[in-house]
Every structure is written in structure tokens, then in C-alpha cells.
Design brief:
3 helices, four-stranded mixed beta sheet, globular, Collagenase (Catalytic Domain), alpha/beta
């Protein structure tokens, strides 16, 4: 995992990210994580609110790279990290990354939320309060 230079991360953020990378066998050299103070983008569609995190993808020199952005406006940064990581795992399994930001799909988001909640609970069961 490559951290964005000059960024201060929340308590246990890096440990939780290490846990997720190990659990899902993620190549850390392909993953960048930003904890951003920028204004998060508003939700697409008719729902009020904003995105607490985003997953981005790019090809560089023939290799896939991923950026997870967690906005400081997030109410629960670790849960937001787990949520975006769950999207990454889902995309890696399906091989599909060409998704543009659109209105949230409640069914898909609920599935990703449940995985994120389970991952955070497992992390805490291992002695991380």
C-alpha cells in the first residue's frame, strides 16, 4: 500500500488497510489510499448527500492501479475504507472496472456495506478496538 505523502490518517487506518490487503490478497504496490480534506462530491441522482469515499482505477505502463479516497467528512473513516475496499474486491473478481460515478444502487451498496461491516468487526475481534 502506498500512502499519499503529507497525509495524516485516522487511528488504526493503516493497520486496518494492512488487514484488508492480507485478507483479500491485494498487491499493495497497486493500491494508493488518500485521506482527503477536499470537499466530497455530491451524490448523483435524486438523493441528497455526498460520497464519503471513492474508488478510482487507471492503467499505467500496462499495470492496473487503484486509488481509494476516504474524505475527512466521512462519519466513520474505517468503515468507509472497508466499503471502498469491498468495491475493489468485487471489481477484481468480476474483472469490471469501467464504471462511472452514478446514482447509488441500493441493493449493490447494501451488499458492499454488509461486507465492510463484517470486515471491520473481524478486524476488531482480532484485538483492535
Amino acid at each position: 500500500m502506498t500512502r499519499v505523502k503529507g497525509t495524516e490518517y485516522p487511528y488504526q487506518f493503516a493497520d486496518f488497510l494492512d488487514f484488508l490487503c492480507e485478507k483479500y490478497h491485494m498487491d499493495r504496490s497497486r493500491l494508493f489510499v488518500e485521506y482527503s480534506s477536499r470537499q466530497p462530491p455530491p451524490l448523483k441522482g435524486t438523493r441528497a448527500g455526498y460520497y464519503e469515499g471513492l474508488l478510482s482505477y487507471r492503467e499505467k505502463n500496462g499495470h492496473s492501479e487503484f486509488l481509494i479516497t476516504v474524505f475527512k467528512a466521512s462519519r466513520e473513516p474505517l468503515l468507509t475504507l472497508a466499503h471502498e475496499f469491498a468495491h475493489l474486491v468485487k471489481n477484481l473478481k468480476s474483472g469490471s472496472f469501467d464504471k462511472h460515478l452514478g446514482p447509488p444502487d441500493d441493493t449493490a451498496e447494501r451488499t458492499v456495506d454488509n461486507q465492510a461491516i463484517d470486515d471491520l468487526a473481524e478486524f476488531r475481534e482480532l484485538g483492535h478496538p
